[in-house]
Write a structure and sequence with these properties.
The chain is an alpha+beta fold. Helix content is 53%, strand content 16%. The chain has 17 helices and 13 strands. The strands form 3 sheets. The protein has a 6-stranded mixed β-sheet with strand order 7-8-6-11-12-13, with helices on both faces. A 5-stranded antiparallel β-sheet has the order 2-1-5-4-3, sandwiched between helices. A hairpin with a 2-residue loop joins strand 4 and strand 5. The longest helix has 49 residues. It is elongated and about 120 Å long.
Amino acid sequence: MKAPHGLFLDVNQEGHTLLSHYRRLLAGQSEALAKAFYDYLLSHEPTAEVFAGFSEAQMQKLVAAQTAHAQQMLTVSFDGEWNERVRELGRLHQTHGIKMSWIAGAYLIYQRHWDHLIHMAVPDQDQEPLRMYLHQLLMHDLMLQLEGYQCGMQKTDEDRTVLFSALLRSLTEAPEGTGTEEFLCAIFRELIRDSDTLCWSWYGVVKAGGAPLYPHCEHGLKRHPIIPDSLGDPCWNALRANQAIVFSLGDPLCPEWLMPLQAEIAEVAIMPFDVKWQHAVGVVGSKERGYFQRVGIDHFTAFAQMGDLVTTLHQQSQRDPLTGLPNRMTLDKRLEKALERSNRHQTLMAVVMFDLDGFKAVNDTYGHAAGDQLLIALARRLQTILRTTDSAFRLGGDEFVFLLNDLERWTDLEVVVERIRQAIEEPYLLDAVEVHVGASLGVTLYPLDDAKPRDLLHHADLALYAAKANKATRTEYYALYDPSVVQDANTPLGGFINFRQSR
């Protein structure tokens, strides 16, 4: 019979007769051989991890199966059915991460075991021909296993290539300006798009107050599970440990939300990550048991880490690194939405630009580190006085902007601006030294100033310039842009009023 890759098993009459004569001797010690086989595998930490969760009864079942395999090797005729069975065993070993060197080592255990029996119980004249025949038998079986192992490696490489391509598509095909949610949806969509094995993917964000997890951007199967925070739940376990886990749906402790998927999914990979300063978790379902171990869970945590990285970069690109407030890039986007909101709600919207009076003196006297401390403290104060509909931004230096939405009347604007002034002028304690700064504010009001977004910012800047120009003699710390008065180079301070004049 021809074995793989040109290896021949010499089924000669002498070898066949010898094996038939000593089969009972060799097969009778198959259980001891199987135990030695698993002792060998369990002595290697990576292999032992494969069997870490096995009960004693499961291990006994494995030993019994190995015993049967050893006995059958001494009796089968190596037909197509047997050959495919051994190849499948090789594929299974590759799936579980058992290295080829360990497989070859296991066959050495067979050879040494049989050699010992031959040496102890077989007459001298039969020892060498029987030993050679058994050696050929082992090599044939090993070659079949390695064939199956190679097929498993090829399939694994193909699956990893699919994952790598999905990751590249997620990064390269996302439109410019794609937001965090859109990018994450693209990642989890691409993750399973071209896979024959992966059939379910989504991510969920942890909400405050112990609220359950809900899938966002669910792809493949549509099951919309609700996942309460409960002890032992795999999603919440992964979040608490901040570590990716693989969970088998055949587990007796399978949570209720996964049970409806047992007919379609064998296991899920769960990867925790962060998005917008919130904990999140990604979930991917596989139809094949052992898939994530075969392909490598690291390939899936890479998706979560990439989502984490891109969303962090996205957030950083839209926030001032010192104060954490949104920056000019974010202001441009928010201003467009504020105009839409004003038109939709038929309310007023104010753009308030301000900087700090006396901030340069703080930097000159106490140093730039003290100035940074003041700006950080100011940003915290501004966030505490914001209404839920308002936003604060840092443009740079000591220059800030407020967008004030849903103002019903002039007095609403005056109340909020006065609150801003009070927050700014509260004393600052910098390294045990009390420091004071003031504020100058420039304001424009939409739709009374019915201008484009960038022009609104320019008008607020002009109003700020007017407020600062009269700092020594002014009666108010702010100026309101008046669109009814033409602004030109000859009248740089014309067209500005205060709130009291406007009423």
